[in-house]
Amino acid sequence: MTSNICNTIFDACVLDYHGKDDVDASIQNPYPANLFEHLLYHKNWIDTVQWHLEDIVRNPTINSEEGIAIKRRIDKSNQDRTDMVEFIDAYFLDAYKSIQPRSGATINTESPAWAIDRLSILALKIYHMQAEANRKDASAEHIKACTDKVSILLEQRRDLSQAIDDLLNDIANGDKYMKVYKQMKMYNDPSLNPVLYQQSGN
User: For the whole prediction, is pTM greater than 0.70?
Assistant: First the structure.
């Protein structure tokens, strides 16, 4: 099932990143660029780097210049993340382009790729919560709370995985159909963000 592929790749990518544990490390995608798996690995690498940038920027002793530079990296990462989701949805649109929706077919509240995006983030939450549950210097209360949260996150991943597989099966059977909207983010566009276009005079 698709969710198994996603979860396996996301978990492997998170482990690969932590082998380096460096937000400036170069991605070494093990999958050829023409494969769906390549998109999944790339997507999770973006998410993993951004996760750690979000940690760094919250350091209370960070100097303002470095903090601004990291916030701008996060802004770019958010755009890259959105772009990757749209690439993944394009893959599904092509995969199901020959499917004729049945009469009465309905649309889902989110596209397959945005649901897969949530799986990618769950892989990161599970990894880091498990790390907290395994801390040797933490209190028993902290370890218990984090262990309980790991169980909830794993249940959440099982439920989301099943929902994704069900959605893709419904699309393949014509019971649901895909309709994808571009995100049209405005803050990165110099023609749509008033702070930017007022400065440029356009």
Answer: yes
Q: Give the Cα separation of 93 and 178 in Å (integer).
A: 7
Dist CA 47 CA 100 (whole Å)? 34
Kindly calculate the radius of gyration of the chain based on its CA atoms and give it in whole angstroms: 20
Which tens digits make up the pLDDT trace of 101-132? 999 999 999 999 999 999 999 999 999 999 99
- Report d(CA 88, CA 59) in Å as an integer: 33
Q: Could you tell me if 167 and 112 are in contact, meaning their C-beta atoms sit under 8 angstroms apart?
A: yes
Alpha-carbon distance of 180 to 55, in angstroms, equals 32
Length, in residues, of the chain: 202
C-alpha span between 161 and 120 (Å, rounded)? 11
The residue type found at 89 is: D
